[in-house]
Amino acid sequence: MVRVLTIFLAAATVLTATGCADMTARQRNTAIGAGVGGLAGAALIGGPGATLGGAALGGLVGNVSTR
């Protein structure tokens, strides 16, 4: 079971990375910020509301921090 999950996550990561190849710096930073914010919200507080809130805030920070 763990092996199947690992293979699935690796494939998802590769497919996601290829989709980001032609993004601008602002789009890339927004996506990274949303991912990190969502992960932080889920880890620190838990629940779907915290995950969505963290993703929204992280995406905003990633968007604004781009020069």
TrEMBL record:
Superkingdom of this protein's organism: Bacteria
Protein name: Osmotically inducible lipoprotein OsmB
Lineage: Bacteria, Pseudomonadati, Pseudomonadota, Betaproteobacteria, Burkholderiales
